[in-house]
Amino acid sequence: MAGFGDVLGWVKHEVSSRVPKADLDQRDADYIREQLPGLWLLASLYFRADVQGLDRIPADGPVLLVGNHSGGNLPPDTFVFTLAFCSYFGVERPFYQLAHNLVVSMPGLGSLRKFGTVAANHDNATLALKSGAALLVYPGGDYEVFRPSWKRHEVDFGGRKGYVKLAREAGVPIVPVASVGGQEAALFLDRGQWLASLLGVDRIARLKSVPILLAPPWGLAVSDMIPRLPLPTKIAIEVQEPISADDIAGEDDDTVNERVLASLQSGVDRLAAQRRFPVLG
């Protein structure tokens, strides 16, 4: 008779086997070109998208874009920045975004892979940078993206700094990307890390949070896996000054991480000071 450990191992295998393998060729420049005008109009009207500082990103070559993350499993900051990047640099420039395994494998979200979204792991990230692409990562992951909404202007990676090693190994610069507004797309009440542990999904699906939130049309929701309507919050994004590959090579992980966090927090504070009301901006 199978024990609990055997059942847990089987479930974990079934979940991981359904995560699409990273295939950079799934990014479809023609598809992005067709979708970009309509989606950028939606972002401009619904989220009043305001993206500044794109000229600070190196004009070509591989680069690691590191952002603070907000908005749960439907992060409007990623949506807005991806559209802005493709509009500014052109759809032909290779650009990829890392996302949690469950987001990449959710039914109906195959179009994300056409925009360059791949499962978040070190191998996929290395593959993208070695191909010469720009890569957007959110080190805070589900820890940061599900933080309570009253902490919406706090940058918190939860101690994660593996992205520094990634940039050093690839020999690429880091460009911090600060954003505000995303954590107002719903009212996030609790990360639900205790619930993730209780349910075992931290071991099964590498999901450390089962958030509790208020969001239309469901009202109170437990977990963010059920489709919902994000509130029309104003998304403001500001690209910060790059940290060169030489600086990253010459400094330890903690020092580089502290520079990135300080840069992001400064940008978030500046953008937050310009907001008058939640959601409305």
UniProtKB/TrEMBL annotation:
<keyword id="KW-0012">Acyltransferase</keyword>
<dbReference type="GO" id="GO:0016746">
    <property type="term" value="F:acyltransferase activity"/>
</dbReference>
<dbReference type="InterPro" id="IPR002123">
    <property type="entry name" value="Plipid/glycerol_acylTrfase"/>
</dbReference>
<dbReference type="GO" id="GO:0016020">
    <property type="term" value="C:membrane"/>
</dbReference>
<feature type="domain" description="Phospholipid/glycerol acyltransferase">
    <location>
        <begin position="63"/>
        <end position="182"/>
    </location>
</feature>
<dbReference type="Pfam" id="PF01553">
    <property type="entry name" value="Acyltransferase"/>
</dbReference>
<keyword id="KW-0808">Transferase</keyword>
<protein>
    <submittedName>
        <fullName>1-acyl-sn-glycerol-3-phosphate acyltransferase</fullName>
    </submittedName>
</protein>
<dbReference type="InterPro" id="IPR016676">
    <property type="entry name" value="P_lipid/glycerol_AcTrfase_prd"/>
</dbReference>
